[in-house]
Amino acid sequence: MTLSAPRSSRFHRQRSARTRGFTLLEIMVVLAILGLLVAVLVRNVGGDLERGSQQAAGLFVKSTMALPLTTYKIDMGSYPTTAQGLDALINAPQSGNGRWKGPYFESTNGQLPLDPWQQPYQYRFPGTKNPRLYDLYSKGPDLTADTDDDVGNWQ
Predict the structure, then answer these.
(1) For residue 137, what pLDDT is reported?
(2) How many CB atoms lie within 10 A of CB 133?
(3) CA 31: distance to chain centroid?
(4) What is the C-alpha separation between 81 and 70, in angstroms, rounded?
(5) Rounded to whole angstroms, how far apart are CA atoms 123 and 121?
(6) How deeply is 100 buried, as exposed, middle or buried, from its count of CB atoms within 10 A (0-12, 13-18, 19+)?
(7) 45-48: long-range contacts (C-beta < 8 A, 24 or more apart)?
(8) pTM over 0.90
(9) Which residues partner with 136 through β-bridges?
(10) Peptide bond preceding 68: is omega within 30 degrees of 0, i.e. cis?
(11) Distances from the Cα of 149 to the Cαs of 51, 52, 91, 123, 135, in angstroms?
């Protein structure tokens, strides 16, 4: 019986040495791997968010505003001028001659929504990209008009 006691204490010492925990090096390796994973995820999600913003702006300029602008043209005989802008869809222009039957675009605060980058949408009539129609576009993520990242109804 005395032989089993030393085995038990030796087993106890071996077990406690194995379950002491992780070394500092092991913890640093795990943290480095987690940091890399987070960086990759953030980069991918950021790209997805940017693509989503561009798609939302494209949907607004190509689809959402097409009906209000066409209805305005039917009532008024022409699209709003560049000077009148998209505000003519919400407020009657000075030169409406009683033909304005708007508002053509319903908004909660009496203003048009901003693009995904919190900038007003840009409007030109006649358009430079669409000479027979209008140009309606967002300046895009660089917030500068007439650059390659613009999101317009001509694309």
Answers:
(1) 95
(2) 17
(3) 31
(4) 13
(5) 7
(6) middle
(7) none
(8) no
(9) 123
(10) no
(11) 11, 14, 30, 16, 15
Whether the CB-CB separation of 95 and 118 falls below 8 Å is answered with no
Q: Which residue has the tokens 């987070």?
A: 38
Q: Three-class SS string for the chain?
A: CCCHHHHHHHHHHHHHHHCCCCCHHHHHHHHHHHHHHHHHHHHHHHHHHHHHHHHHHHHHHHHHCHHHHHHHHHHHCCCCCCCCHHHHHCCCCCCCCCCCCCCCCCCCCCCCCCCCCCCCCEEECCCCCCCCCCEEEECCCCCCCCCCCCEECCC
CB 99 within 8 A of CB 77: yes
Which residues on adjacent β-strands are paired with residue 137?
122, 152
Token pair in block for residue 130: 């669409």
CA distance 50 to 13: 57
* Residue range 49-102, pLDDT digits in tens: 678 888 999 999 998 999 999 999 999 999 999 999 999 999 998 876 789 998
pLDDT of residue 95: 77
